[in-house]
Structures are given as C-alpha cells and as structure tokens.
C-alpha cells in the first residue's frame, strides 16, 4: 500500500482534529521546555500553535466540513481548563478570532502575504483580548504600553516565524486531500 493510497483513506477532518490536539499539546510543551527563554523577564513570547492550526485550516480547508468554529470553541474550553484555570475566556476568544480571520481572509486574494496579514491580525486580537480579560479580573498589573512592548510584540514575532515555517507544508497537506 503506497503513501498516496494511505493519505486518501484518512479523512481531512480526522487529520484536522488530530493536528489541533497535537498543536495544543505542543503549545504547552514548548512553553515548558523553553520557559527560560520564552518567559525571560520582562518579555513573554507566547507560542500559539493551537490558534495557528485553526487559522491555517480556515485558509486551506472547508470551514463547514471541518466545523472550525465549533472546534475553536471546544479547544478554547480545553485551553481555559488546562492552561489558564479561568473558564470562559478563550472559549469565546478563539471562535471570535476565527470568525474575524475568516471574514477578513475572504476579502483578500488567497496567497501567503494575505495569510500572513490575517494571521498577524488574529494573533494581535487573541493576545490583546487575553490581556484585557486578565486586566479585568486583576491577573495582570502591566500597563498597555508594557503589554505591547513586552508581550504583544515578542508574541507576534515568534508566532509569525512559526506561521512562515508551517504555511506551505500545511497548505500542501490540505491540497493533497482535495485531489
């Protein structure tokens, strides 16, 4: 049995869900393993492979078949339970970011630069809404300026690098399942 035959037997929806959970656990693993580098005072570089996987699925997959909005809420709920301990923050932020990215991406030509711009917007909204939620409940005392310099900018930098590295391989994965 060849690789091509094996790929065709695994539905893209299954690959999407498995990939989402792999990305979810890689977020935590990278954060743990590289914590001395990623979270060196005063900066925080927060990897978001979970969100990247969802947004790239918006770019390349069929949102209705993959149920991306539903999965973004589910993974947001799990993200809240597993990583933050504050139920309700990311269960709303993930679907909102996915909706925003989907809406903006549909207005642009489907190419790498458009995807890069939309992903930039998605990460910015994701991190900013997380900051607002944490400020509202008193979990952070950073000013907006400190947040922008020490968290938003480094988080954007690391996630845009991840996106640039993952864009074409994930695009080819989805393209191979359309044929």
From TrEMBL:
Which InterPro entries does the UniProt entry name for this protein? Cell_shape_determining_MreD
**One Pfam family of this protein, by short name?**
MreD
Localization, per the record, is: Cell membrane
- Provide one Gene Ontology biological process annotation: regulation of cell shape
Per the record, membrane topology reads: Multi-pass membrane protein
Similarity field = Belongs to the MreD family.
Name of the protein described by the UniProt record:
Rod shape-determining protein MreD
> Species lineage, top-down?
Bacteria, Bacillati, Bacillota, Bacilli, Lactobacillales
């Amino acid at each position: 049995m060849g690789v091509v035959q094996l790929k065709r037997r695994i539905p893209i929806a299954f690959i999407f869900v498995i990939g989402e959970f792999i990305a979810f656990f890689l977020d935590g693993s990278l954060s743990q393993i590289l914590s001395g580098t990623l979270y060196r005072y005063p900066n925080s570089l927060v990897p978001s492979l979970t969100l990247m996987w969802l947004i790239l699925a918006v770019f390349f997959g069929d949102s209705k078949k993959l149920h991306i909005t539903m999965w973004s809420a589910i993974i947001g709920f799990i993200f809240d339970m597993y990583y933050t301990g504050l139920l309700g923050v990311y269960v709303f932020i993930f679907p909102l970011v996915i909706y925003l990215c989907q809406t903006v991406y549909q207005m642009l030509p489907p190419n790498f630069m458009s995807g890069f711009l939309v992903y930039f917007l998605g990460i910015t909204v994701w991190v900013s809404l997380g900051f607002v939620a944490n400020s509202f409940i008193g979990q952070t005392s950073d000013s907006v300026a400190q947040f922008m310099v020490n968290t938003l900018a480094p988080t954007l930098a690391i996630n845009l690098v991840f996106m640039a590295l993952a864009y074409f391989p994930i695009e080819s994965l989805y393209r191979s399942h359309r044929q």
